[in-house]
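Holo prediction. Input below; ligand is zinc ion.
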Amino acid sequence: MTENDKLKTLKLLAKRCARAMGQPQHVALDFVANRLGFPHWNALTGSANREWTPSEAQVASIKAFVERITSYEGAAFDHVFGGPNAITRGDVRGHPYELKTMLGDVYMEGEGWRIVLPENPSAAPNVEIDISHAQNSPINDRVLLAEAIGIAKELMKSVKARRFSDWPRRATKPDAEGTVRHPFLEMEKSNLWYCLHCDAEITGPQIAGNQWHCPGCGASPINIFPEAFWLGRNDEKPAPVQSRAEEQEIEPIVSVVDPRPRLDLNKNQVTHLIRSALFEDAASASERMGASLAEIWVDDDLEVIVSLEDHYWPEDKEPTAAIKVAALLGIEIELEVTWSDPLFAWPGLGTMTRSTAEYTRMMLDAYRSKGIVEERGGNR
Ligand SMILES: [Zn+2]
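Structure of the complex:
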């Protein structure tokens, strides 16, 4: 396998993993990167081809892992109840609220305050009060707050009652040996379980008692497996989870927040604005490719260096929109020229039209009459 093939394979495996687990693709990509020792997928691809390449063994271990996950295909992964449109209105001691449930969590919102009750039963309710209401919010009243949380908990109870009615009985009631059945992976039963996120070892009664959320890190039921099959021989052995004392009431976490959008300009935002401006500056299909190929490098002080590729961006062409954007942001912009192999032969063709389709046609015609075209299926 070439290095590029390995990355492609990892990406494909992450896609399959995402589909099987009902998770967004970027979560699965980050997950694969984690397993290979990177904080996230972009860090992995950033290092790939430079100081690091995945070994055949690493690719094989991810492959084995994903095969194991997808072998559960057909198992009913979690169903999501509720949604943004199912809203209940009411009032708590004369203060109106809206109540809804999304992805298993319960959301309650009043004027200048909101409460989130996480699906994980051992996580604290999260209470936010807008700063403009901080002094006189009804939520400051502890009795009223407790009542509001009580209302949210009632909804949570009914959401969970509907959820548990789909679960096998053994998922919530351990037998005499402490054996429980996984709520979604119904073929799996065990008295010891492992968390994919924190590698904790969890007993059957512990996991059932915490409604299949990891008592250690709070990971959701799809992260709980009867074997820690993702751990290699040299990885640390899973340790028994430390769970909090049972039936202990969890204090809500109250914070005062400023709900106004806050701009704290970061590299990513600067990069997108500058690239968008380069596209605006591009006067031809060729220059648009130049805008797309440009390397935009933003340093920690948000100073930006734009490397424009000589074949696609004339050296004497000022990217005026990009310069204007940088000025508005109050950041320095430096331009430089780079030379690399053009994407296609005869890059100058792209200066003759504004249309990318038109350029593509000219480029294909040129290859057909003056070059060699590898034939492939598809429209021509
Ligand atoms: Zn965990």
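The first strand starts at residue 88 and ends at 92. That is the main takeaway for now.
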